[in-house]
Amino acid sequence: GVQLLESGGGLVQPGGSLSLSCAASGFTFSKIYMSWSRQAPGKDLEWVAGIEAGGDGIRYAKFVNGRFTISRDNAKNMLYLDLSSLQIEGTDMYYCADGHTGERGPGTMVTVSS
To answer: Is the pLDDT of residue 88 over 90?
Structure first.
């Protein structure tokens, strides 16, 4: 079955950067649309960015405002999300998801705090 494992989260100061990764297995990664979402404690899941199978068709949520970059390496079955200019947004769990089943990994936590 689909297996997704996010990594790279941590504590970062406002204005800082983090690079998140998602290792995928159990499906033909190179043929599937992938996305990142995030969820703050007590809030709904929020879509962040998506990328088509071939690496094109990239879209971002409006709140990203040029600060994040989604990418993928189909040869390695890896999805990435580079975060920069992080604002004091508290703690969010970031999840990668495959566009076919909607399955998500366990997430990686990002805390932006001074």
So the answer is: no
